[in-house]
Design brief:
Helix 1 runs parallel beside helix 3 and helix 3 runs antiparallel to helix 9. The two termini are 24 Å apart. The chain has a six-stranded mixed beta sheet, with helices on both faces. The protein has a single domain (5-185), classed as 2-enoyl-CoA Hydratase, Chain A, domain 1, CATH 3.90.226. Helices cover 50% and strands 17% of the residues. 46% of the residues are buried. The chain has ten helices and nine strands.
């Protein structure tokens, strides 16, 4: 696999949405937009009862936003648009009337932690450690913060946001509430995800829709909130501190 993609396959009521980018599944704006659109369409498809969200490859679920695009930002509006990419995906997941099962097979960083946090039920392999690295480059996990805090709590989110150099292992993430279960291998994870999705397909779709509304109560302001957070990140990425830091990473 060398070319980025977002694909969807539907089988027996299960929509499997898969994204991929050769740079450790770090996602540029066009792939994020395709992902947002695919999630929205799956939510509107009467043939879909439940959604499984996964990434291609073996080692990394999602390394966050595209570093190549990040270092090319030279004005606040471009920065706002860039950081709105993950905001739009998270909001699409939040509004989707179908349950979204996350399948996290490997490490996830930054925006990827936000995507995992925005799933309704997340299952992972023991290799699925997480890191919020944004402060390390002078920005901060502003856009993904609300989704991560919703799953990990303020204490857990603050811990990994401040300790921006460290990966926290999958068991830590399970104990904090991000992962519902952790498996010894990707094969075991995939078997469990499939069985769980098949079982959900036996539930009353209307009951699941109503349950999802209840679960996401209190997030109705996220369209505005995440847009405001994208503006903050877009401003900070232009700071001298961040520009100098990005040069070193480059």
């Amino acid at each position: 696999m060398t070319k980025p993609y977002v694909t969807e396959s539907i089988d027996s009521g299960i929509s499997t949405i898969e994204f991929f980018h050769p740079a450790h599944n770090s996602l540029p704006g066009d792939i994020l937009e395709k992902l947002r659109k695919t999630i929205k369409e799956a939510g509107e498809n009467d043939d879909v009862k439940v959604i499984v969200l996964k990434s291609g490859g073996e080692r990394t679920f999602c390394a966050g936003a595209s570093f190549k695009e990040l270092i090319s930002i030279n004005d606040a509006e471009t920065g706002r648009v860039f950081f709105s990419g993950f905001a739009n995906v998270i909001n699409a997941m939040r509004k989707c009337p179908k349950f979204i099962i996350g399948r996290v097979q490997g490490k996830t960083v930054g925006g990827g932690v936000g995507v995992a946090s925005a799933t309704d039920y997340c299952m992972a392999s023991k290799f699925a450690s997480i890191k919020l690295s944004e402060l390390n480059i002078g920005i901060g996990p502003f856009v993904v913060g609300p989704a991560v805090e919703r799953k990990l709590g303020l204490t857990g989110m603050s811990q990994i946001a401040i300790d921006a150099n460290s990966f926290y292992d999958a068991e830590w993430a399970r104990q904090k509430g991000l992962y519902a279960s952790v498996y010894e291998s990707t094969e075991a994870l995939d078997e469990a995800v499939q069985a769980f999705a098949e079982n959900l397909c036996k539930y009353n779709p209307e009951a699941m829709r109503e349950m999802k509304k209840v679960m996401w109560t209190g997030t109705e302001n996220w369209d505005t909130l995440l847009a405001e957070r994208a503006v903050i990140s877009g401003r900070l990425v232009l700071s001298d501190f961040t520009k100098e830091t990005l040069k070193r990473f480059k």
